[in-house]
Amino acid sequence: MVLVPGALLFFFPLPGLNPQQSHLLGIFLATIVALVAQPVPMGVSVLVAMTLLAMTGTLPAAKVLSGFSNVTVWLIFTAFLFARAVTATGFGTRVGYLFIRRFARTPLTLGYSIAAADVALAPFIPSDTARGGGVIFPVARSVAVDFGSEAGPTAGRIGTYLMLVAFHATYTSSGIFLTGMAANPLIAEFALKIGHVELTWMRWFSGAAVPGFLSLLVVPWLLYKFFKPEITDMAPAREFARAELERLGPLTRNEKWLMAVMVGVMAGWVTSSLHGVPWYGFPNTFVALAGLSVLLVFRVMTWDELLSERKAWDALIWFGPLIMMSDALNDLGVVKYFSMKLFSLMGGWPWPAVLIALVVAYLYIHYSFASMTAHITALYPGFLAAALVGGVPPLLAALALAYFSNLDAGITHYGTGSGPVYFGAGYVSQGDWWRIGFLISVVNLVIWMGIGMWWWKLIGIW
Q1: Closest Cα partner for 99 from 123, 84, 120?
Q2: Residue 381 in contact with residue 194, Cβ under 8 Å?
Q3: Ramachandran sector of residue 317 (left: φ over 0; alpha: ψ -120 to 50; beta: rest)
Q4: Residue 431: other Cβ atoms inside 10 A
Q5: What's the rounded Cα separation, in Å, for the pair 312 and 402?
Q6: Which residues contact 429 (CB under 8 A, 6 or more apart)?
Q7: What tens digit of pLDDT does each residue of 411-446 get?
Q8: What SS3 state is found at 166?
Q9: What dihedral do alpha carbons 377, 383, 384, 388 form, nearest 10°?
């Protein structure tokens, strides 16, 4: 069934597309459907697509393999390895408990402390599954269990609130940083090739800072109003965090090296847009590779650990070909074809109306996706091109769609990798999950497309 969309386009080209364009589009759509349905692992689907592209003559063999030389792919690969180091050293767990011990004075501040821990880790753990599901979720659940709040009758004590705060903080944190989610660098790649806009680490963060932190301020408070915990005394949470930190002991040698490298890499990313200075202006990828090299040389991470990091190698295998196919679709004019079709429905609209309509559509289409990467790969280029045709300022269009490529994860329990982890804990019913997800999506639209637009005007994005 997953091959049906591709097969139809392969044998019956769309009007206005030549056979090569239609064949490429058919294989690409079949790959996206396979990534969403996942009848086989994502890497298998992409390898099949690569083989078909070459064997059918749709693209030259060198072009098919060109994705593996893309610097964005290597940035994503390296970022996954940083996530492994943060988790393996125990540093991520330590950060979570430090925030709880310091700031958990009420249930609301406990929620804020969990959100703050996620924000602190987001620049260095580019997978919300690894960060939210692998680091923050165990911390939040441990605190809930320590309060006697388990899934079921006791969920309302505090567990329901903590699960929802942790989940909604994770994807919001992903949107604040270029390196907060694996596919964000892919968005920067699309923005450069389609909109001729360079999304540096600092440019991304500066646009997200005010609306992002406002969301992180408002959403935990909103969740507190809807799912007010029955327990109000937070002393046990602080004591539990203190005991866990005592068990972890003082910072280890590896954690100290990791902290130093993380600070250095962050400085490199922040200054990567400064050109003309000999030691500045290096691409983000090579800043990250320099940090990884230090971790390997000083044995914070061993070569065998690098080789065993399945998620990093898996991402390397399937991200490269996806970027290659997206580039080919753009180069062959397929993206322009669909953007013109899409914009024809909004012809004559003022550009603010075009932008809002595209953002709202882009957000709620995510009900049909179980992967942010699949959503971005399939739709971001076309929506960005349509926004540009509609007269939206390029940097504004690129960033608005980029931020909602992360914020769309909150509307369902399957829209991103961390969703099933939090939902699967059993503290929140599916009905409540979807209702609160839709409400928060509306709140995010108001914050990011309301106050955010004012902020973006103030800092010169449009």
Answers
A1: 120
A2: yes
A3: alpha
A4: 8
A5: 22
A6: none
A7: 988 788 788 888 888 899 989 999 999 999 999 999
A8: helix
A9: 160
